[in-house]
């Protein structure tokens, strides 16, 4: 007998029919799908299909890695911030990104994957992190543009994740989004200052940074829906609430009016307002570049991985000391 559940399994396994599942597993799967359809949130202790668990570990750990690697391009400018105020803001922002990484690793750990396993996957180059962090931050204007465009794109993508069907991820995202919102505003405010009070040279620096970060920011949303292998299932399970292309369009529509206020242009000759759709049409993304960067061949991929590996090696004594302290405390408690 060929059941509907077997169809699902066959799709998951690339078309090959799989062995029949037990009646108990089928009942659990049906109950799980019914909870998802009813808009229920799934907690760590609840039963879930393996593929749901794996998809979440993949997405949440990639997200955590992105936050941690994302500290590098901006961290590089902390010592060179132009004023004490800008330095304090940047320091707080980079610290926030570290915090986001920690909430997200903790959320992924609730699914049964250890932090050590996730870290090992990042350090070996096996795990993905956002393509955007493989581009260099060349000038101070890049710091403003990262806040405005990169954090802006991140918020667009992450606000719907506050309603992700997996509750521990959704809860982490609520806090992350509050902080990202401050990050976006500080970036925009810093650019506005340069564009309204800056010299011609500073204004040109902002425009140059926008020219370099615009297309990579649009790539952050992932491949076009038609080329996104994970989207359909993730949307069906309420892991992703909005598709890659829909989010990208929302980002362009929200950002172009902000660019006009700033007095900068985006490097897209095909950008134009579409009266019928009440939305912007924009040019074709260079997907070959996107896949090159995702595949490890971006301008800074090697540098980023080397920096994370060095940080891990340099931090070995801290981890050893913390472990020795914890062991000592535990043996004291045992003796008492
Ligand atoms: N970069 O089927 P798809 C931040 C991969 S951090 C690299 O559409 P999915 C911030 C994708 O993983 C920003 N890889 O996948 C931090 C998949 O490969 P695998 C990070 C990408 O998961 C510091 C393949 O391409 N935000 O905000 O349904 C400072 C096919 O894609 C990218 C998050 O991680 C990419 N851009 O959708 C400032 C948000 N795009 O895994 C800011 C959470 C796709 O099958 N993540 N790939 O080997 C998501 O929302 C989704 O995972 C994505 C991709 C929309 C990114």
UniProtKB/TrEMBL annotation:
Enzyme Commission (EC) number: 1.14.13.149
Stored Pfam families: PaaA_PaaC
Residues of the signal peptide: none
Keyword tRNA-binding belongs to the record: no
Keywords, in A-Z order: Oxidoreductase
Molecular function per GO: phenylacetyl-CoA 1,2-epoxidase activity
Protein name per UniProt: 1,2-phenylacetyl-CoA epoxidase subunit A
Protein's organism: Pelomonas cellulosilytica
């Amino acid at each position: 007998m060929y059941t509907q559940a077997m169809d699902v399994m066959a799709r998951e396994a690339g078309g090959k029919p799989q062995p029949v599942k037990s009646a108990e597993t089928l009942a659990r799967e049906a109950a799980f799908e019914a909870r998802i359809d009813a808009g229920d949130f799934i907690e760590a202790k609840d039963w879930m299909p393996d593929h749901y668990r794996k998809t979440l570990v993949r997405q949440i750990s990639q997200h955590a890695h992105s936050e941690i690697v994302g500290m590098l391009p901006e961290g590089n400018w902390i010592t060179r911030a132009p004023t004490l105020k800008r330095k304090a803001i940047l320091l707080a922002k980079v610290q926030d990104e570290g915090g986001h990484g920690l909430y997200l690793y903790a959320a992924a750990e609730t699914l049964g994957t250890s932090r050590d396993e996730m870290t090992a996957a990042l350090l070996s180059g096996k795990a993905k992190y956002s393509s955007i962090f493989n581009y260099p931050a060349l000038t101070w204007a890049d710091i403003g543009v990262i806040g405005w465009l990169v954090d802006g794109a991140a918020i667009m993508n992450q606000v719907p994740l506050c309603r992700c069907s997996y509750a521990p991820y959704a809860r982490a995202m609520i806090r992350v989004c509050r902080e990202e919102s401050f990050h976006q505003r500080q970036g925009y405010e810093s650019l506005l200052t340069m564009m309204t009070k800056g010299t011609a040279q500073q204004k040109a620096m902002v425009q140059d940074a926008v020219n370099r970060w615009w297309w990579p920011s649009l790539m952050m949303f992932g491949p076009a829906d038609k080329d996104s292998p994970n989207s359909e299932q993730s949307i069906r399970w309420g892991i992703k609430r909005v598709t890659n292309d829909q989010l990208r369009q929302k980002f362009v529509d929200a950002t172009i009016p902000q660019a006009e206020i700033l007095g900068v242009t985006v490097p897209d000759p095909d950008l134009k307002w579409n009266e019928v759709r009440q939305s912007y049409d924009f040019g074709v993304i260079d997907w070959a570049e996107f896949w090159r960067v995702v595949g490890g061949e971006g301008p800074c991929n090697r540098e980023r991985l080397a920096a994370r590996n060095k940080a891990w090696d340099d931090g070995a004594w801290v981890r050893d000391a913390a472990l020795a302290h914890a062991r000592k405390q535990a043996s004291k408690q045992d003796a008492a």
